[in-house]
Amino acid sequence: MLSIRALGKRYTGPRERTVLAGVDLELAAGDYVAIMGESGVGKSTLLNLVAGLDRADEGSIRIGGAELSSLDDDALTVLRRERLGFVFQAFHVLPYLSLAANVALPLALVGVGGDERERRVAEMLAAVGLADRAASFPRELSGGELQRVAIARALVHRPMLVLADEPTGNLDPESASAILALLRDQVKGRGAAGILVTHSLAAARSADRVLLLTREGLRAHGDGS
Amino acid sequence: MLRTADVSDWRAVLSGAFAQNRLRTAIAVLAIALGVALGFAVQLINGSAVDALAQGVRTVSGDADLVVRGPRSGFDEALFVRFARDPEVAVASPAVEVEARVAGRNDALRIVGLDLFRAAAIQPGLVAETGSGLDMLRPDAIFLSAAARAAFGLAPGDTIALQVGLVDARLRVAGQLAGAAGERIAAMDIAGAQALFGRLGRLTRIDLRLSEGVDPRRFAERHAAALPAGVAIDRPDASLRATESVSRSYRVNLNVLALVALFTGGLLVSSTQALGVVRRRAQFALLRVLGVTRGRLARLVALEGALIGAAGATLGVVAGYAIARIAVRFAGSDLGAGFFRGVEPSLAVDPWALATFFLLGVVAALGGSLVPAREAARAAPARALKAGDEETALSRMRSPAAGLALFVLGALLVGLPPVDGLPIAGYAAIACLLAGTLLAMPWIAGMALARAPVPRSPPSALAFAQLRGAPGQVAVSLAAIVAAVSLVVSMAIMVQSFRSSLDAWLARVLPAEVYFRVPSADTAFIAPADRARIEALPGVARVEFLREELLLLDAARPRVVLLARPLAEADAAARLPLVDAPVARPAGAPPPVWVNEAMVDLYGFRAGRVVALPIAGREVPFFVAGVWRDYGRPQGAVQVDEATFVALTGERNATNGAVWLASGASAANVRDAIRAAVPGGERLEVALPGEIRALSLAAFDRTFAVTYALELAAVAIGLFGLSSAFGALVVARRREFGVLRHLGMTRRQVGAMLATEGAATAALGVGVGTVLGAAISLILVYVVNRQSFHWGMELDVPWVNLALFGLAVVALATLTAMLSGRQAMGVDAVRAVKEDW
Fold first, then answer.
1. Contacts of A101 in chain B (CB under 8 A)
2. What residues make up the domain containing A160?
3. Could you give the ipTM of this predicted complex?
4. In chain A, at which residue ranges do the beta strands (DSSP E only) sit?
5. Which of B275-279, B413-417, B471-475, B609-613 has the least mean pLDDT?
6. Which domain holds residue B558?
7. In this complex, which of A74, A80, A96 lies closest to B742 when CB atoms are compared?
8. Which residues of chain A are within 8 Å of residue B387 when distances are taken between CB atoms?
9. What number of other Cβ atoms are within 10 A of residue B831's Cβ?
10. Model confidence pLDDT, tens digit, residues B634-682
11. Do B739 and A92 touch (CB under 8 A)?
């Protein structure tokens, strides 16, 4: 489903710097991994490369058989729209849309409309425990609730892969724990693969596997460290 | 008082804010500069022209305490003897004034005939400075002011040819006058002037210096009743007020237009600051958390506005001076309106005017910053620190109560009469409508967007959702464009109504096929023998002659025009452009007079009333049989039947004529024949109706040319405002665009979303601006124009032009939004979603 081979990324400029080198990763449907690492080691860069928001200098990334390096910006956008879901640290729920409209947005972009869209939105909101808040606006919600909306939005269009970048960074420990459980259940329950990037070992333990990103590449957390 | 540390804090925050918004700050500065420049230029040009006029009046009246003035044709010189012998009069200086046409030039020269010895005591400016003083006693010598010498290129010893009657009279330029440097004026011996200009036994003014201790007001009151009808005694500055009043409404209208441009600039500052506050909401919240008080934060934002205003005002006064110089050079001191002929102003900067316009610029920008400043101070720091709280900042503006209250006040003001001849209440009503609309804009935007159909495509649907969720931001973005559109629409409707009414009026008042008139009614006329010659010309079926006189009804107002022509009561409705049905004259009532609308407004000469006109030195009663529309004489005009006029005055000389051609006759041939038939006929101004119409409409267009420039400037400011607002919003919404790119929206889709927002916002602005402009145009047509110029007009809406204008503004605004969106496209989507507090 996701295949990363010998991935490398350098930032050019006055101080050229290699951020990623020799990164390999294989994920199948239902796989849910956490990636940890020191600040600046390239965790977010890896997510951006997988999302098609940045270009790799070496190696390949294939999502559902599609080689990202062969796609132009529009094709990458379509791929992102159809096959990926995102959960951000700062939620990024659009303030001027109701919860239902926020969750419906990916469906609208992939052309799912009418009753089908309403049914799937209602189902997703119910799945994240916000069935009775469909008409509410983001300003009326707590941080934990906003992240639930973000999870619903990330999964409503049935993506292959969900990318979550520090999804509990803005939450209290109790809310964080609930969100991590929800995210894992929804990703795995819907047959998607998931990558959780986090600094928190506690958060990382909610995943099936914990990987550590270093200058040398990805390895299982605890291997030779 | 600020401590040293505070000052450096303020400087750091301000310089940071300006550096962050360099382009928008520069545009706001330019908008204020534009408004100040236009206002200051108009003030400078008009102020200088009026100063030159005042100087002219001072020169002619000198240090006289009182002036006796009468009809333009003058009064019996026996009146001079009465004043000269009065023991309370120290010096009485008689004068004959005429406007004489300079031969071979389309220009008039004001000539004052004076008694040298008496004038020297009261009017030293009209006494020779160069040349022999004794030449002022010679009937063939004339002295010119410096301006007249320069204008006509004459030096002492040269000969000046003046048209007197229909022939040329030649006078020797004997020297230069001591005063009146800025006015085209000449002085000569009074007896010579009376003889040359056909004023034997008549005077047009007597300047009086009273003996020491005599109260001028009481002296005037004592003598006023004994003066012949149509002759008045008053302070010299009364005639200045009268001359000035002719152009005052025009000048005030121009100043109001410039103030609207400045107001629009203030709105631009307001939208720039409001959105700057929204954008920096989190920064301000952090400052509050760090201990900056609400008051200091508000003062900081207000100070930003004041600095923008000061920079704009400085630039504006400099640009205003430059504009004034260019405008005077190319369009004249009246900006093409034709009020100040013969005046050659030198631009003199009045420090008070300069300070006033500088302060107006600062106040406009400061005023525009007050609401954003208050908002910056009121924001709750904890909430403001959260992203996505921007609209909360503007949600308090959604109540329509204040706006509706201003609408009601505006409606009430419309019914009030003018103040000192100016439509102050009308202007105030316009200000109320404008301010009310801007205050009600968030509510209007909310209502309109809630009812707008939602497009199906996701980008457009998102655009509408964003606009519906942020009517406050929409309103702030739109303030400048609503003001600009309303200005353009109101002016377009008013100007179109005026122009089409003028065109229809010209068609109505020019029924004949050839028109002719003497070049100067002061010094030329068509005698009965000439009338007979013209009537007998081949190709002429009928000629109607007209006599034009100027009567003084009120010393503080300009003279009223009297037109005497064959005009039977039964034909009046068919021949005059009456605004209402004529009033039947009761049996035994005095002879009929038809008055223009200005006479109703200025003198209360309503239809059906009996009024008195000073004709031939006595008050003659007339019955006002009807009111006619007149776009040529805002100072007032009356028409009487020629037979009545001749019976009262014995005067049979005419000044104008209209010719109806015989079947098959050529207008061009008849024109030539008229010129050949009358001695000096080549001096007659002969024109065909089409030429008069074209000239009149060209003069009309020239008069309004300056207003088009002001409107364009306002629209440019409005578009800058929209651009500025969109730019700020785009920056404020970077995270949103980043999220949308993550969710799978292409750059084009984000661009389409912004374009939809731009188009919908502009359409709303154009729609509201058009409705507001239409309402303002009604006030302009029925209140401001009527009270300013005393003429009515029929409403005529230029639908096609307004539709094209609206589409152009929407297209430009959409383009503006898209260009602003490129900034959003350029922002890295990844970085955008990472930026947060």
1. 465
2. 2-220
3. 0.88
4. 2-11, 17-27, 32-36, 58-63, 66-67, 84-87, 161-165, 193-197, 209-214, 217-220
5. B275-279
6. 514-687
7. A80
8. 90
9. 12
10. 889 999 999 999 999 988 889 899 999 999 899 999 999 998 988 878 7
11. yes
